[in-house]
Design a protein that fits this description.
Elements: H1 3-17, H2 23-33, H3 41-57, E1 76-88, E2 93-104, E3 109-115, E4 121-127, E5 130-131, E6 134-137, E7 140-149, E8 154-163, E9 173-179, E10 182-188, E11 210-218, E12 222-225, E13 228-234, E14 239-246, E15 257-260, E16 263-272, E17 275-283, H4 288-294, H5 298-309, E18 319-324, E19 329-330, E20 336-339, H6 347-355, E21 364-365, H7 372-390, H8 392-400, H9 418-421, H10 424-441, H11 443-454, E22 462-463, H12 465-476, H13 481-488, E23 495-504, E24 511-519, E25 530-538, E26 544-550, E27 554-561, E28 565-570, E29 579-582, E30 587-589, E31 597-598, E32 603-606, E33 609-611, E34 616-621, E35 629-631, E36 637-640, E37 646-656, E38 663-673, H14 690-701, H15 723-734
Parallel strand pairs: 1-11, 17-18, 18-20, 21-22, 23-29, 31-38
Antiparallel strand pairs: 1-2, 2-8, 3-7, 4-5, 4-8, 6-7, 9-10, 10-15, 11-14, 12-15, 13-14, 16-17, 19-20, 23-24, 24-27, 25-26, 25-28, 30-33, 32-36, 34-37, 35-36, 37-38
Helix pairs in contact: 1-2, 2-3, 5-6, 5-7, 6-7, 7-8, 7-10, 10-11, 11-12, 14-15
Amino acid sequence: MKVTLSFFLFIMVMLAVCHLPAIAFADDIQKIIGEERPLTPTEMHTILGKLKAEGLERSRALKSAAEPSALSQLDYDASFYRVALEIYDISETIRGEVLIEVRSLVDGFDSLNLDFDNALTIDSVYMPGMVLSYTHGGQSLVVELDRAYNSGELISLTVVYHGTPTQSVGFQGFLFDTHNGAPMVSTLSEPYMARTWWPCKDRPDDKADSMDIVISCDTALYCASNGKLIDTTRNGDGTWTFSYEVRYPIATYLFSIAISDYVVWKNYYHYGPSDSMEIVHHVYPDQYTYSLSHYDITPDAVSILAGKFGQYPFLDEKYGHANFEWGGGMEHQTCTSMSGDWFGFYEPVVVHELGHQWWGDMITCESWHDIWLNEGFASYCEALYYEEIEGKASYHSYMQGMNYGGERTIYVEDTTSVANIFNIVVYDKGAWLLHMLRHVVGDANFFDILQAYYNSSAQYSHANSEFFESVCESDYGQELDYFFDEWLYGTYRPSYIYERFVEQDVSDGSWITYLRLYQGQATDPQVFIMPIDFVVSYATAPAETLVVFNDVRDTIYTIRTDREPLAMDLDPDRWILRYETELSWSYHILPTLLDTGKQYEPYEDSVPVRGGTGEHRFSIVNSTLPDGLVIDSITGVISGVPAVMGEHTFMVKARDRWNQASKDSVELTVYFTEGEGIPGDANLDESVNLLDILFIIDFLYDEGPAPSDPRFADVDADCEINLLDILGLIDYLYGEEGFIPQMGCAEK
């Protein structure tokens, strides 16, 4: 059926009503949905997120509701709601009676600040036997209590109201609509819209411990809602009342109702040999047959996700679906609301919204800054589902369908814009963060982490990114700051540029690969710290995976193998969200740790270069060598007798003799330990001067005392003390040849 075309026209009409440009948004959705077909994950997530964002952003009347509550609500904890609504679909009005129970968190608590849209009219606010004063304006309701309450005391009051909830052009809040001529009433409160149809503390970090839901509507209609249906009562006036109990903690935005002429059918999730849980599907009559095969995957999907994370979290109540007129899906606790066109039956959407029951409903983001803990996790559930039913290749292929390349951070800085909250980055890059984390810590550790998160203090409560990171680090046993800092708060992704040079070590027959890896992105961060797989292929042996831990922008790794590597591919399984370019080896100085030397003793080491014609020219640039050392401009050998000690850093430049464009520079460091004395200091008075010459003459020719340490008098290091040492010192002190005394080898 051509539901998608009517959906597109509906969007055009609604946007025209708002007198806002419709072209970009409508064209995007038409392009994505088109005819019924498989969608890429990004296309699917664009629908799920963009409709939420665009619907509210384009509703002028509800613009003020697109901002978090400005009320001070940290002085109490919401513990219980009883929401009783009479729904009059013909007049598009509701009558509500909401019992609110809260616990004071402070002493002297005397006024209760609630979120509640003033488009609805309050009839009364009362406690048993007492009417309470209140102020109702904008999006807030402030109730003056009967007295000041101390910390820990419970307060219970009831708000009675009526009216028509502010409409948001068919996307958000409370909607009166039709489907094929039948009434259709539904709600979608994420992120700030519960306040538009019932008074509450409308924030995700304070869940009510439990909730009663009592909905009266026309007997021709059926009401789907959260929790367990415990009773239906015929009222004798053409209406009936549905009573649901929610006995798990629930956030305000996850409470929903959906009312239409549903066909209701069930299947079951069997979690034990004799134990099962109802899965209740509320579908439009024209979609009943279509729903049978498409929603029938739900029990297996519940089983798969429960096996990955931990048991389905609302086992004592139910799971299910309810069709509504919004274009996407919404993970209302235990009863997901789904579009009535083909998209609402699409397998990845079914899995995505189911995944939210763990991630979003059981553990809810503390604030909308961390919405990725809901949407990124649910998107990742899709990939895990296909890994389980189709294999690892399908998993990797699915992740490639979420290949995010934009500039946004996963962490949402500005939550006053719903478009920011539901940007595609939280879905796709959020899922990639989990995908990459899995490879960083390893499969076993990763699923241990998810189960630890499931069983953490955030269970049936809320969490932020810092809490999730702490769970990861605690379970993994290592710090992961580097990972979360760059992927959660950083932008874009790394661009790896790599090249390699292979040679055989003639000393033992092994093969050495010099792998140069450079991060070329100009965005923040400029260095992504990550372990990177390189898969090495051989002619006569299976490929093997080598891992380098990359924490610098530009470096050369030395990799030794026992056979010649034919190819080396960077992360072929694509565990990292990145760009990569392989280049031919150009011209590089190899990373080298110069040998440690000793002050006043002969020193020699060399600067290795690979590439070019093999003939090089070396020089020291923008620095100087330590005193006593020189570099051979042709061989790159650094030699001499250092006259200094400690650490010394200098810059070496190499270039190809025959190709001026082939050149490289590298900063090297050498360390010299303190010498035992000064070569030439024959008399050991800590200086080299005429007295040392006279000391040796006296020793050799006038029966003077022997040097205490002959090495300091053997200045030409020929292992003898003789006339040549005297001449060497004379040349050193007074000549022009530049003789340098050396640490000798003469023995006592």
